[in-house]
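tool_call: predict_structure(chain=1)
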Amino acid sequence: MNITESVAIAFDAVRAHKIRSSLTLLSIAIGIFAIIGAGTAVTSLENAITGEMANLGENSIIITRTPNIEMGNTWRKYRKRKELTYSQAVEFKKRMESTDMVSIVNTTAGITIQSGNLSTNRDVSLIGCDEYYFSNNNIGVEEGRPFVAEDISLNRPVAVIGNDVVVKLFPNISPIGQEIRIKNKKFTVIGVLKQRGAMLGQSQDNLALVPISYFMRYFSSEWEASVTIMLRAYSRESLPETIDESIGIMRSLRNVKPWEENSFEVSTNETIAEQFAGFTGYLAIFGQLAGGFALLAAGIGIMNIMLVTVKERTREIGIRKAIGAQKNWILLQF
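tool_result:
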């Protein structure tokens, strides 16, 4: 029996057992895609995190009530911490001397924005921030202007919106100077953010920014919601000094005793990257285990199908051997 005849018999077997052949191909595909998918997911997450860390800049510092990533049962420890209030953040901003690039941020999701008869879906992120938020996050304004100090101090009802909101509410006109409504509060659009695209399938342009002073009054509660403080040191060399000053001021504002640990978290882009690296490490191990199990299951399925194929040809194999077929010919056929 030559190779051409073996290939012809193989195709005849595939056509004769379509379901069996399909299941074999499906098992192989599941195993391969499980391995590739796990690796791709981890790589995409790492690239997205690296890009976000680059946007923050190497001199950035973030102060929050709890860590950005909580591993294990640490949430039991952090949930007892008091809120990082807006009044504490304002006082912190006044006391900082090593840098004046301090921004106060708070966010809420699931917001609907309206303008005239048009409205967005209930998936817009509303961010309360001040004038330094744009520079601290490397966010540019494509049209109009960002916030200025007077917008915050005078509690002006103004807003800067993302491109997704512009597309839905102002498809044919410039949004600058137009009026929008957020929870029955009216805002004048003063700027449009530069497009940032999507990260991990989530659009970064589906958002609206309003002054933090207005946000805390109407969309949050100073006593119930923690804010995030973002600041940037003037240089890489002054970063340790700025961090030490930040910790000292926050401990004083939150009445932390000398022998007690911090009741807040101070992070830089390096520490955040390290936290995410640990998280992605666990994710990579999980992906490899899941892919391995999928590949094992696929291998068992293929093995069973091969066993059935050989079993149903036992008589044929016996006849071939009886008339002088060699072992390698039979293996070649299978």
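agent: Residues 269-311 form the longest helix (43 residues). Proceeding to next step.
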